[in-house]
Amino acid sequence: MLVDLRTYTMVPGRLKAFLELYEREGLPIQQKHLGNLLGYFVTETGDLNQVVHMWGYEDAAEREARRTAMENDPEWIAYRKKSADAGNVQHQTNKLLRSTSFSPL
Are 105 and 2 a contacting pair, CB within 8 Å? Predict the structure, then answer.
């Protein structure tokens, strides 16, 4: 399994607005294209104002195909513009994690 781990750091005071917009407009599009949401979290300790989410894929080829389809979806393009215009996200990072032979995932 390949896990796409993303961390978004919000502008302080903008976390709630980001989550509301994402849940209403972004999540349905991502679920349609990406399929396997493993988890969506907010931080309570450590670096604050962060959203962490994980999506699972069989391999890199599946991830590439699914993300390409999503990036070409006019609804996703419109959502990304709306989200960017809202000015909620300050910084983002992305890691691809490969599961070990003994991982439960």
Answer: no
Question: In this predicted model, what pLDDT tens digit does every residue of 72-82 receive, in sequence order?
Answer: 999 999 999 99
Q: Which fold has domain 2-98?
A: Alpha-Beta Plaits (3.30.70)
Closest CA to 23 of 34, 31, 12, 14: 31
**pTM across the whole model:** 0.90
Closest CA to 34 of 8, 2, 10: 2
**Measured distance CA(33)–CA(65) in Å, rounded:** 9
Question: Domain ranges in the chain?
Answer: 2-98
